[in-house]
Specification:
Elements: H1 2-14, E1 32-37, E2 41-46, H2 56-68, E3 75-80, H3 93-101, E4 104-105, E5 129-133, E6 141-146, E7 152-156
Parallel strand pairs: 2-3, 4-7
Antiparallel strand pairs: 1-2, 5-6, 6-7
Bound molecules: zinc ion (ZN).
Zinc ion is lined by residues 121, 123-124, 126, 146, 148-149, 151.
């Protein structure tokens, strides 16, 4: 019974998208750390991806609204926790695909020891890209430029506990 409810909650969480990238869910971003289902309440623990990015209060509200639609619980508790820290490795394969569809290069999987990273162009897969502006439109994205297809594109900055 509780197990079934937990599955329903996970389904509801899949409906909660990143406020800025509406094709990627908080599950695919790797934000959901724990779902604990009780008799008439549920506790959902989320890892913030970046400080103040994306809008955490919007996500919190959307999580509550989506889970409330199940009509299972008297109380829905959403908590942001910082341990373990979110890293860009937590983005699922599905999430990486969705980011690409949105024209955003998924976070790089390899970061050198000196902290250098590289992403391929999400449009043409070219590796011939340069960083135009490390400070993108939001704290979590950078602007890059593809020298092959001449498109600017955004990339999710890597976040790793190694850095
Ligand atoms: Zn390109």
């Amino acid at each position: 019974m509780l197990r079934e409810r937990e599955n329903s909650v996970m389904e509801a969480l899949k409906q909660v998208k990143d406020p800025e990238i509406d094709s990627i869910s908080i599950i695919d971003l790797g934000m959901v750390e724990k779902v604990e289902v009780f008799e008439d309440s549920v506790l959902i623990e989320l890892l913030p991806t970046f400080m103040g990015c994306p809008a955490l209060d919007i996500i919190q509200r959307n999580v509550v609204n989506s889970v409330a639609e199940l009509n299972f619980f008297k109380q829905i508790k959403v908590q942001f926790i910082y341990h373990p820290p979110w890293t860009s490795d937590r983005v699922s394969d599905e999430g990486r695909l969705r980011l690409k569809e949105f024209g955003i290069a998924p976070p790089p999987t390899r970061i050198t020891e000196t902290g250098e990273w590289h992403v391929d162009c999400p449009y043409c897969e070219s590796t011939y890209t340069t960083i135009e502006n490390i400070f993108g439109p939001t704290a979590c994205r950078s602007i890059l430029y593809c020298r092959t297809c001449k498109n600017p594109f955004e990339a999710m900055k890597p976040v790793s506990t190694m850095m």
